[in-house]
Amino acid sequence: MALSSPALAQAPVRLVYEAPPECPAQPAFVAAVEARGGDFDRAGSGRPHRVLVVAITRDDRGFAGAFQARDDGTASDRREVHGQSCAEVADALAVVAAIALRSDAAPEAAPVDPIGPPPAPPPAAKPAPSPERFVGHTGFFPPRTEEVLVSAGTVRFDRKQTYALVAGVMANLVPDVLVPRYDLSLTTAHFVTMPDGSQRLDGTVVKVHVSALGPATHRSPDTTTSLVGISFGIGLCGSPHFDTRGLVILICGEYGGGFMNLETRGTDGSQIQSKNAGFGTLVVDGEIQYNLGARFFIQANVGGGGVLGDITAERLDGTRIFGGSSAWGHGVAYGQVGFGLRF
Hints:
mainly beta, 3 helices, about 350 residues, rod-shaped
């Protein structure tokens, strides 16, 4: 509904204000303009029939507002703002209207006192905070585009990295053997700190690791097979809770690979076979970290998935000592505990 109060209609500059019922009324909007230095009575000198048109509507993102200054022959560029609430949009339009009114005011309307104090300098921009603690989370299905309304100031970007050493066992990599596994891992998370101090974890968390496997031994009635190997992996992780001074939870999907060296001997100690077997891994890993201060943390993780490829050992006559019959592999599981440092 368009409104123009009788008082403003008699002023040098007239206001036409249109907004939904849930928005601030025209008197509240006028008060907001005047609080920011806009004066309808002192503006518009030499420009008859000056009209400020303010329109606010509801849209799919919240509310949209538009501002335009018109007179008999010309019109200014249309200024548009958007916000989640009508109050935000009205407040932004009040700032725009106040600037337009101040630019219309006569220069002599504000005399300067020659013996008065000098004007105060404008306030300095508020610096971005330098927190020691970062808290955030990731969405598992993040939108392609996301808009965040921030106040004026500095936006800060931080990269937090962790280096962890964990140890545990891996089950079913080789049948009937628990293979020791030692991991050295690197995890990287990116944070954004807004001018008001609020924080966001930007994007997914990336994790890479190198693992030492073994030594382990598989025994059969007539053979002994020694196993040792190495593997690697890279994963993309989501975090429902990430606190660099408290609890961190990561859920990762990981792809990797490696190889095992197998040396098989008979009961008399004679060598039967020595070979390397390659394999791939596709696993889901759950990880919990708890930070003990700013740098040190303890960690536990469990995971499971599939091994692509088949690790086998054979006797001299070609009969198989262990290993599956399918080249597509088999399932594995593992658990580990350890500690790490955060930077």
